[in-house]
Amino acid sequence: MQRPKLFLHINDRETEHAILSSDIARKFLLAKSSEFEPWVEQVKDSQTDMAIIEANDFTEHDLHTLKSASLHLHTEFIFLSRGEPNVFLDKFMKLGAGYHLRSPYEFKTVQTLVDDFYEDGATAQSNTKKIHSSSLNQFGHILGSSSCMLKLFRTLRKVANSDLNVLVMGESGAGKELIAQTLHDVGVRADGPFVALNCGAISPELIDSELFGHVKGAFTGAHKDHTGLFEQAKGGTLFLDEVTEMPIEHQVKLLRVLELGEFRPVGSNTAEYADVRIVAATNRDPSDAVADGILREDLYYRLAQIPVHVPPLRERSDDVIGLTEHFLAYRNAVEETNKSISQAALNRIVEHDWPGNVRELKHAVERAFVMADNVIEETHLTFVPLTEKITEENTVPTGIPLADIEREAILNTLEENKGSKKRTADQLGITVKTLYNKLEKYDQQEE
Ligand SMILES: Nc1ncnc2c1ncn2[C@@H]1O[C@H](COP(=O)(O)OP(=O)(O)OP(=O)(O)O)[C@@H](O)[C@H]1O
C-alpha cells in the first residue's frame, strides 16, 4: 500500500517526539515544516493527505489561503491549540476541515485520529478491486476515489449512525441527494422510511400542512385528516432539499420542531413526537443566504450540526474518468451491449469543467451512448447547449422525438443557469414543481 503523506507543524517538542517515536512514523511519509516559510504556504504546496498543525495564531490570511486551495476538502487536519477563541479557525473547522484538539489534549487522542485515518485509507485501497464496473471506490450510493471524496466518505461513515442533523452543501448535480440517501441507508434508521421534500417546489400556503399534517376542518378545503411528512418519515429520515427556498416565516416553525423534538398538525392541540433524522441540502452558500435574509441563522446552526460539503466535479477531476467508465459500464449492462469510448473522447471529457457536475456528466455519457454504434467518439459528445437562443444558423432540430427535445431543452437550460431551478423554470415557462418532476423522471430513467 502506498504510504500516505503527513505534514507536521508542531512547536511542542514533547508532542513532536511522541509522534516521531510512535508507529505513525512507520505508516506515513512524514514532512516537517521548515521555519523559512509560513506553514500555510508549505501545507498548500505539499499535497499532503493529513496535517497536524499547532495553530495558536491561526489568522484570517491562513483561513483564506487554505480555503482558496480547497484544502478542507483534500487534507485531513488535526489542529492543536491552547484553546483560546479563534473565529478564523472556527470558520475553517465549520467547512469540515477535520479536528481541533484543545490543550490539555492527550497524545493518545492524536494517535487514535491518525490511526483511524490510516485504516480508512487502507480499506479504501483494498476496496478498489471489488468494484467491477470501474476503478472507483464506493460508499453507499456514492462513487469516488479522489482524496476529497475519501474524506467525505469518512465523515459520512462517522455521522451515519448518529441522529445529528446534517446540512449538505454543494452545487447542483454534485450528489447532495445521493448523500442524504446514503446517510439513511447505511445508518441505524435504514429500516425506516426516507422521505424527501423539495422546499423550493411547494406552494408557501401548503408548507405547514405538508410538513406537520392537518386535521379535518383545520381550514377551508381540509376535508379529511392529512398525514404530514414528519409523521410519514417516522423512524426514518426527512430530507429537506433546497432548504433555503423555504419561506422565512415558515422556517421558525421548523426550528421549533428541531428544538423541541415535537410538532403539532395544523388545527390539532396534540403535540406529536418528531422521531426523524433531518438531512437538509442547499446549493447556496448558507452564510450568504443568512446575510441575504432568506435563511434564519438559528435554523442554519440547528440544521448544520454536521456540515457536509460536496466538492464540485471540477475539484475532483481524478474522478471524472472513473465516473465516465461507471456510467458507460452501467448502460452496457442494462442494454446488454459492449460499447467503449475512444481516448480522444475521454480527453475531451477530462478537459470540460462540468458546471452541471455529476448530473451533467451522467447525461452527457448517456447521450453519447445512444448516439454511438460501438465506440463513443468526440463527435458523440454534446456540451454546447442545443437550446442556445435560436439564430439563423442555429435552428430547432427536426425529426427528433419531442420528449428528447424537451429533455435536452430542460437539461441544457439548467446547465446554462448553473443549476438554478427557479431561473430555468422561469425561462422555460413551467413551474418549479414541474421541473422537479421531470428531473426526477430523467434520473429514474437512467437508474
Ligand atoms: N458521486 C456520485 N456517484 C454516482 N452518481 C452520482 C454521484 N453524484 C451524483 N450522482 C448522480 O448525479 C445525479 C444528480 O445527483 P443528485 O440529485 O444527488 O445531485 P444534487 O446535488 O442533489 O442536485 P440538485 O441540487 O440539483 O438537487 C443523480 O443521477 C446521481 O445519481
Automatic annotation (TrEMBL):
Keywords: ATP-binding, Nucleotide-binding, Transcription, Transcription regulation
Domain Sigma-54 factor interaction: 142-370
Superkingdom, taxonomy of origin: Bacteria
Gene3D superfamilies: 1.10.8.60, Homeodomain-like, P-loop containing nucleotide triphosphate hydrolases
PANTHER family in the cross-refs: SIGMA L-DEPENDENT TRANSCRIPTIONAL REGULATOR YQIR-RELATED, TRANSCRIPTIONAL REGULATORY PROTEIN
Name of the protein described by the UniProt record: Sigma-54-dependent Fis family transcriptional regulator
InterPro entries on file: AAA+_ATPase (IPR003593), AAA_lid_NorR (IPR058031), Homeodomain-like_sf (IPR009057), HTH_Fis (IPR002197), P-loop_NTPase (IPR027417), Sigma_54_int (IPR002078), Sigma_54_int_dom_ATP-bd_1 (IPR025662), Sigma_54_int_dom_CS (IPR025944)
Membrane-spanning segments: none
